[in-house]
Specification:
It contains 15 helices and 13 strands. By secondary structure, it is an alpha/beta fold. Strands 3-2-1-4-5-6-7 form a 7-stranded parallel beta sheet. Strands 10-9-8-11-12-13 form a 6-stranded parallel beta sheet, with helices on both faces. Helix 3 (66-83) packs parallel to helix 4 (96-106) and helix 11 (278-285) packs across helix 14. 47% of the residues are buried.
Length: 372
């Protein structure tokens, strides 16, 4: 029988986000018994009823708060004793205490995921995970360096990127005529995403591509600020703030835009920035050339001069130069589109899930050998 996998995570669908998508993808592709311990979300009752595996939730009030994490930890012993996992998978360092309990009570092997900014934000929880987990998984080389800087590791740490679905074969249509389109897909919560730098770059881009359009997908606390800046800078005719869109609309935007631009930047303390940036892989899979910041986990998600161009994310001039170069050179853009699709194959779920499965089963075998 395949290994029994118990996943402990603070976030899970129907909530939307990178950890949510990664956790769901790993669970869906696990070929043995699996169950999820997580926090409640709006709509989770309906979601859980349709799930092919059990999902057990703790009260999530305040949402994601310390008390909610404590409740998740509190329900873990009962479910761990009943499920008897062979492997416990912690998807966030704040679940380290719960994973440690499950390991203690059942003798399960413990595999711990790391994503990036939670490492310096919760150094104590990170140290617990690093010093007690049997194996770690970082979503990028950058994330791995953050973990290694916090504490010595009890076990090895591998780098496995998040997964994306294999793209449905389709011909890129592009935006024809004189109007070229820049696409950004990101939360508008965090200043590090680079919306501000792209705002500064827009007048420089318009000098060479006068009728350029910037399509912005996403919502967040800074959406009002962004709308105000668009108005103040006289960019209303060149910027479309689309908010949240459904999957079909998002796919259509990937297929019909000319360049994907997200110049995220990383702070020195590691508390802001991309741990990986799954949207870069999704853009590449759609054949959309990328302009991104040469910092943090983006260095694993984007290959310079292959899937896109890496620039100084604090420089509006460098962002503008890269964007203009791609928008004005059809052949270069088309060549990069083909290379981006090929590059993205390393992030497809079939490969990622296989790497994860190999790591987990190897960790389990090693843990059993140590006990025997």
């Amino acid at each position: 029988m395949s290994a029994r996998l118990q996943i402990i995570t603070p976030v899970f669908p129907p909530a939307i986000g990178g950890i949510e998508s990664l956790t769901h993808g790993l669970a869906e592709r696990w070929d043995g018994p699996v169950e999820i311990l997580t926090l409640a979300e709006p709509g989770s009752v309906e979601w859980d009823a349709a799930s092919r595996y059990p999902v057990h939730r703790a009260v999530n009030t305040p949402r994601g708060g310390r008390k909610s994490i404590a409740r998740l930890t509190a329900i873990t012993p009962r479910h761990a004793r009943r499920f008897r996992p062979d492997v416990v998978l912690g998807m966030h360092v704040r679940c380290g205490y719960a994973a440690a309990l499950a390991k203690l009570l059942t003798g399960a092997a413990w595999v711990q995921y790391y994503h990036a900014k939670e490492v310096p934000t919760w150094p104590g929880a990170t140290r617990l995970c690093a010093q007690r987990a049997d194996h770690g998984v970082a979503v990028s080389r950058y994330t791995k360096t953050l973990v290694e800087a916090v504490a010595p590791l009890a076990g090895p740490i591998a780098v496995i990127p998040p997964g994306i679905p294999a793209p449905v074969p389709r011909q890129r249509s592009g935006v024809r005529g004189n109007r070229r389109t820049i696409l950004t897909v990101a939360r508008i919560n965090d200043s590090y995403k680079g919306h501000d730098v792209l705002l500064e770059a827009m007048p420089l881009i318009r000098q060479h591509v006068p009728d350029v359009r910037w399509a912005v997908v996403g919502t967040g606390d800074r959406q009002r600020w962004l709308r105000g800046e668009v108005e103040a800078r006289g960019l209303r005719e060149h910027v479309d703030l689309l908010g949240l869109v459904d999957d079909d609309t998002r796919d259509r935007l990937f297929a019909t835009s000319d360049v994907f631009v997200l110049p995220s930047r990383t702070s020195e303390d590691g508390r802001t920035g991309e741990g990986f940036g799954i949207v870069y892989a999704e853009a590449a899979a759609a054949g959309l050339p990328i302009v991104a910041g040469a910092q943090g986990g983006v260095l694993d998600a984007v290959r310079h001069n292959v899937s896109g161009l890496l620039v100084d994310p604090t420089s509006a001039e460098q962002v503008a130069e890269a964007v203009v170069g791609l928008l004005r050179d059809d052949k270069r853009r088309q060549d990069m589109s083909a290379k981006a699709r090929e590059w993205s194959r390393r992030f497809e779920w079939e490969r990622v899930a296989d790497d994860f499965r190999t790591l987990v089963l190897g960790t389990l075998d090693q843990a059993r050998d140590q006990r025997s």
